[in-house]
Amino acid sequence: MPTEPTPNVIERSIEIAAPVSRVWAAIADHKAFGEWFGVALDQPFLPGQPSTGFITVPGYEHVRWTATVADVLPERLLSFYWHPYAIDPAIDYSGEQPTLVEFRLEPTSTGTLLTVVESGFDHVPEARRATAYLMNSRGWTTQVARIKSYAE
After folding, report:
1. Is the pLDDT score of 2 beyond 60?
2. 150 phi and psi angles, rounded to 5 deg
3. Contacts (Cβ under 8 Å, ≥6 apart) of 131
4. Domain containing 78 — which CATH number?
């Protein structure tokens, strides 16, 4: 029986009752990002530069955060490349093509519309593609709720 192909994109949007400047600060400041995301980052987000650290969520403290910052457009877009659901420290994921994560902000009459998009799952190796998509899909649902709570 054929299986459905794994979708290529995860998209989550949430209305946050806070000005764009406050939501931007929660996303673009690496320390604030770490507080709601659950990661201790080693350095600020700078275009073209690595972002490294460790996950701080209980049970995942062994997971190294490794991303490459793509764009930092103040109060509009923060994006980075990473390897989705790369949680096994015994596996070298560096040979895989990463996915792109984008945080897009738009002002609204009541605050900010935050849209998080992760794309490129079609490049994740087939053996782990469906699991990476499923886990990140669940993860982004949780994370947009966490940033809403943090920013409000």
Report:
1. no
2. -65, -45
3. 85
4. 3.30.530.20
Round the average pLDDT of the chain to a whole number and report it.
Answer: 96
Residue 3 is assigned to a structural domain of this protein: no
pLDDT at res. 8: 94
Which DSSP string do the residues of 63-119 spell out, in sequence order?
PEEEEEEEEEETTTEEEEEE-TT---TTS--TTSPPEEEEEEEEEETTEEEEEEEEE
pTM: 0.95
What is the rounded CA–CA span in Å between residue 13 and residue 116? Answer: 6
Tokens of 95: 């040979």
Q: Which amino acid is at 20?
A: V
CA atoms within 13 A on the CB side of 70: 13
Q: How far apart are CA 71 and CA 96, in angstroms?
A: 21
CA 58 to chain centre: 18
Domains in the chain, number:
1
Give residue 5's pLDDT.
Answer: 74
151 exposure class (CB count in 10 Å sphere: 0-12, 13-18, 19+): buried
Is residue 74, in this structure, part of any structural domain at all?
yes
pLDDT digits (tens, 9 = 90+) for 70-79: 999 999 999 9
- Per the domain annotation, does 4 fall within a domain? no
